[in-house]
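Per-record layout

source: Cryomyces minteri
name: NADP-dependent oxidoreductase domain-containing protein
length: 284
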Amino acid sequence: MSIGAWSWGDEATWHWSPEELPHVKEGWQVFRKAGINWIDNAQAYGSGESERICKQLFQGLNRDEFVIQTKWYVVPDNTTNLFHPSRAPAKMLKESLERMGLDYVDIYLVHGHIHPGSIAQTAKGLAECVDSGMTKTVGVANYSEKDMIEMADELKKYGIPLATNQCEFSILRRHPKSMGRLTGKYNSHNEPPKTYRFSSYPMKDIEPTLAVLDEIAKKRSKSIAAVALNYNISKGVVPVVGMRSAAQARQNAQAFGWRLTREEIKQIDEVSFEGKSTVLWQQG
């Protein structure tokens, strides 16, 4: 399980407040005690603030006590991204490392296939990041299957494997984020904020899904979130979970130590959604 850090420091989408930081720190300790120490970050999260928050979480820890991945913000917002696509990943990774106070990350991803340069140029840039020691491994996020294979082939020319393709998969999008809709926090009378931009099904449409999850959760004495996460794990998926408090961390950690039965998975499959892909972002 990976801890999603998108909300940390992000005011535009997640309405982050600095007063939340102590709660995130407490949740981080809950996760660590449960053996979960892998954080998923990105240069775009909070415009770098999420990476700065990670620096505080890592204080006092040995480097082998946590795993951190971040993502290259590929939108052509500066001249390096636009005119020097092969150099951009390394340049921006250096800035990420400075924000986190680290010498290297464990995994460095391309945030999406919206970069102005070609896949071959991007692969060259990722290879430079590995060769320089700034990251151990590289991967992609939100890539289509076709483009993922092309990236893997290009990286192979440098003797570097593609470590991962991070894409959206959940009960609400089997098509490979439900944005809190599978936690039990929301219902048709309490819709998620409109700024939660992805998988924005009206809550009334997924009430049958939540009813099945709630039934299984009560029978298992687990949280609804834990049941939803266990579904992903049972499908062979490594989930990325949001966390803004110790309570959320404890709920998510309940996903471990047990497995849904085949009958329970079939129950959930029957009320799940295939979902869709988009050309701009959720390609995979």
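summary: Residues 187 and 203 are 5 Å apart (CA to CA). Residues 174-236+259-284 form one domain.
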